[in-house]
Write a structure and sequence with these properties.
By secondary structure, the chain is of the alpha+beta class. Among the domains are: 137 residues, Cupredoxins -  blue copper proteins (Immunoglobulin-like), CATH 2.60.40.420; 139 residues, Immunoglobulin-like, CATH 2.60.40. It has nine helices and 25 strands. The strands form five sheets. Strands 1, 12, 13, 15, 17, 18, 19 and 21 form an eight-stranded mixed β-sheet that branches. Strands 2-6-11-10-8 form a five-stranded mixed β-sheet. Strands 3, 4, 5, 7 and 9 form a five-stranded mixed β-sheet that branches. Helix 1 runs antiparallel to helix 2 and helix 1 packs parallel to helix 3. The N terminus is likely disordered. The structure holds copper (II) ion.
Length: 463
């Protein structure tokens, strides 16, 4: 009932449903008040999303593609309801007006030879470009931060962004919400106790960001990354793939301990390739638990690089071992990286179309890094250390460690927990610098961790 306003033609065919805002940030009591304010300011389109978010058990509200709210019963952050209400209300969109309260100094006149108007002294076009991509990344989240961080911090942020220019992105949907986001969990059919997933393998047009021309790409169920498949350790799984490509392929579930090696998905080692128009069924028991993947294992340099990659999450059979119960995790994100035809991407998008991680002070956020590329990427989080709790799905136990930079090799997965206790907007990026920054400013493998003092509902800002 609250499918996202199609900003991208692909969206309409994806049956995109969304739950929970920067998932888990929705505080039911708070959201309703935030919504009233948001609706008054922003008009239509908010009712369904917010009501769904407020309804216990509703599953149709917005969910960032890469994130997943954890079941109720997860520990709640320490934020007080009253403070949350205030923040949520203030986070409702207020197109750029609030930004003009900032003490932005008037830009000096640009030299007549400059191609850029209002160039501050000492700046080059690089600075203008670098600022512009961040303006696109935040869109109308930027003015809403006034209600999140308070007047003093907001004045600094507004000055940094040059909000005094009253630039158009202040009223625009942030770029990550303008493109189709993959990695949405799909539910299996249960047939005689077997969890059955039916997927297609398709040619697609895929946008790395909202401005670049679409790429000729590939997708499971027409999306890159493909749907997240999620089961419980010990489940019987049947994954049925129909190949709608003009070329052959094969699908490998990466990390599964197959009993029958003919389910391993490697053409000419364990099966013949899946020909165009054919359907192939993989059947196995989901073990071990952890962060696993599925991807093409045929002509894979090309096919994975064009988008045939996705997450396969196997939850522990023992509920006491879940991240929510054992570690107090309140929400989770999955970052699948790639570095081929689409450039340097997180979940199929480069900055500024990458989804930010949004969490309230006191939350514990799980990030599952999955490297589906051909290069190592050292993920670096500013302001925090990541608690590294699992590698390739296997819990590290007494070998857990902390890192602010974590190299993830091709094929590897790392699960990390962010214990966020200091509000702010913190950069989170690959630290191989050519993967993240160029003459046009930041691009590629960059996002942020946005830690808010209290829970906020950003849902109204995303349409
Ligand atoms: Cu990198």
């Amino acid at each position: 009932m609250d499918t996202v306003t199609p900003q991208d033609p692909q969206t309409t065919s994806q049956s995109v449903t969304h739950a929970g805002g920067p998932a888990g940030l929705v505080d039911a009591a708070v959201t309703r008040r935030g919504f009233l304010r948001g609706a008054a300011l922003a008009g239509t389109g908010l009712v369904a999303a917010t009501v769904a978010a407020c309804t216990p058990g509703a599953s149709q509200a917005w969910e960032f593609a890469t994130s997943r709210p954890l079941p109720s019963g997860s520990p709640a952050p320490a934020a007080s309801a009253a403070a949350s209400a205030s923040a949520a209300a203030s986070a409702a969109p207020s197109p750029s007006a609030g930004m003009n309260m900032s003490p932005t100094p008037a830009p000096s006149a640009a030299p007549s030879s400059s191609p850029v108007a209002n160039m501050p002294p000492g700046w080059s076009e690089h600075d203008i470009n670098a600022r512009q991509v961040v303006r696109r990344y935040l869109g109308k989240i930027a003015p809403a931060l006034k209600g999140v961080y308070g007047d003093a911090a907001f004045a600094k942020l507004a000055d940094i962004l040059g909000a005094g220019d009253n630039y158009p992105e202040l009223a625009a949907v942030p770029e990550f919400a303008q493109v189709t986001q993959g990695n949405k969990e799909i539910r299996p059919k249960i047939v005689n106790g077997v969890k059955v997933f039916e997927l297609t393998i398709d040619e697609i047009d895929h946008k790395i960001d909202a401005l670049k021309a679409p790429l000729k790409a590939l997708g499971y169920n027409k999306i890159w990354p493909g749907p997240q498949l999620r089961v419980t350790e010990g489940d019987k799984v049947r994954a049925i793939f129909t190949n709608n490509l003009k070329e052959t392929t094969g699908v490998h579930f990466h990390g599964v301990a197959f009993e029958d090696f003919f389910q391993d998905g490697v053409p000419f080692i364990t099966q013949k390739p899946i020909a165009p128009g054919e359907t192939f069924t993989y059947e196995f028991t989901a073990t071990p638990h952890g962060s696993l993947m599925y991807h093409s294992h045929h002509n894979a340099t090309d096919q994975v690089g064009r988008g045939l990659l996705a997450a396969f999450i196997v939850d522990p059979k023992d509920p006491a071992e879940s991240y929510a119960k054992k570690y107090g995790v309140t929400q989770e994100y999955t970052w699948i990286s790639n570095d081929s035809v689409g450039g340097f991407t997180i979940n199929g998008h480069g900055f500024p179309a990458v989804v930010p991680i949004v969490a309230a002070k006191g939350e514990k956020v799980l990030v599952r890094f999955m490297n589906e590329g051909i290069m190592m990427h050292p993920w670096h989080l500013h302001g925090y250390r990541m608690r590294v709790v699992a590698r390739d799905g296997a819990r590290l136990g007494s070998a857990e460690f902390y890192a602010d930079t974590l190299g993830v090799n091709p094929g590897e997965r790392y699960d990390v927990i962010l214990d966020v206790d200091r509000p702010g907007v913190w950069a989170f990026h690959c630290h191989i610098l050519p993967h993240v920054e160029g003459t046009e400013g930041m691009f590629g493998m960059v996002s942020t961790l946005i830690v808010t003092p209290t829970k906020v509902n950003l849902t109204p800002l995303l349409t």
